[in-house]
């Protein structure tokens, strides 16, 4: 039986139900769907970050300069599927000190779009992106800030810096030590302060 025929049969069956029975049927379907989503979420928690990697999309270019420089890359529109299977929106700021390679921006565009159908927490996503960028580009330094749009009245800003000792860095730059959350963003932290 074709999908269209099954769909028509289901619609006919629903039409034959009285409103209370129809409501009950939709409730059962909703609970089944929520149970499936919960199971997927629980299974995803156990997966390593490498499972979510999209590093294969990134391309690197030889660094044209031997002198040190800082590259800031701002991604104002970043979307992905959050853990509750709803779209999340944010912006990303990369601070990049290249070593032998620099970022091909076209591949970075494809890379950020590759997460649109990836259900994961933004904490995990920030770590996955950091790991991917470090692996592909091997920079002298990488700082990633991800600021998420408010959901339920709360917004969040996550930061990872390869300079931090806790991330294996040497803490040689220490420009993060003043704890100013507006590192390259025009507002203070994750929300605008008046």
Structure described in brief:
It contains four helices and six strands, in the order H-H-E-E-E-E-H-H-E-E.
Question: How many extended strands?
Answer: 6
The number of domains: 2
Largest sheet: number of strands, sense, barrel closure = 4 strands, antiparallel
Strand order of the largest sheet: 2-3-5-6
| CATH homologous superfamily caption of the largest domain | GTP cyclohydrolase I, C-terminal domain/NADPH-dependent 7-cyano-7-deazaguanine reductase, N-terminal domain
Average pLDDT rating: 85
Structural class: alpha+beta
For the record, what CATH class of the largest domain applies? Alpha Beta
**Shape, per Cα inertia axes:** elongated
CATH fold-level topology of the largest domain: GTP Cyclohydrolase I, domain 2
Distance between the termini: 61 Å
Features:
single chain, 194 residues, GTP Cyclohydrolase I, domain 2, 4 helices, 24% strand
What does it look like?
The chain is an alpha+beta fold. It has two domains: 3-45; 49-167, 2-Layer Sandwich (GTP Cyclohydrolase I, domain 2). The chain is 34% helix and 24% strand. It has helices at 3-16, 19-45, 105-113, 122-137, and strands spanning 60-62, 71-81, 87-97, 101-103, 141-151, 154-161. The strands form two sheets. It has a four-stranded antiparallel beta sheet, with helices on one face. The protein has a two-stranded antiparallel sheet with strand order 1-4. β2 and β3 (87-97) form a beta hairpin. The longest helix is centred in the first third of the chain and has 27 residues, at 19-45. The relative contact order is 0.12.
